[in-house]
User: What shape does this take?
Amino acid sequence: MPLKPCASASFRSPVEDLIDNALSPLVASALIEAGHDAVHVRDHGMADASDQAIFERARTDGRIVVSADTDFAQLLALGGERSPSVILFRGGTERRPAEQARLLLAHLDALAKDLEGGCVAVFEPGRIRIRATGPIGG
Assistant: This one.
């Protein structure tokens, strides 16, 4: 999927994000300022929590994990579950929180259906890869 802003700025996605400790709390703040429902793991006192605990919190709260840590995608694949969906910033993508937030804001609406259905969305330089999640053959 090429990196380009989605056309419908008036549509507000129902996406709720849990920003992992691998990303700055400034990413969550920028999403909140733009009207999205986002929290950083530190907001839940989970700065030192295991990936599994953060993953379970996201599942319980109905949130999407946003991270640069591939362990979350592995947890999802190993469990054969559809949720929580995961957004990953990978190799060479922007590391500055303002740019990460800009990328998320430009694409969350376009990704909303995939995220609601269960997926891993990988942000890479110049593209976004989307892989549906869930049981094999299901």
User: Anything to note?
Assistant: The longest helix spans residues 97-117. Residues 1-13 have pLDDT under 50 and may be disordered. Residues 9 and 34 are 11 Å apart (CA to CA). The radius of gyration is 14 Å.
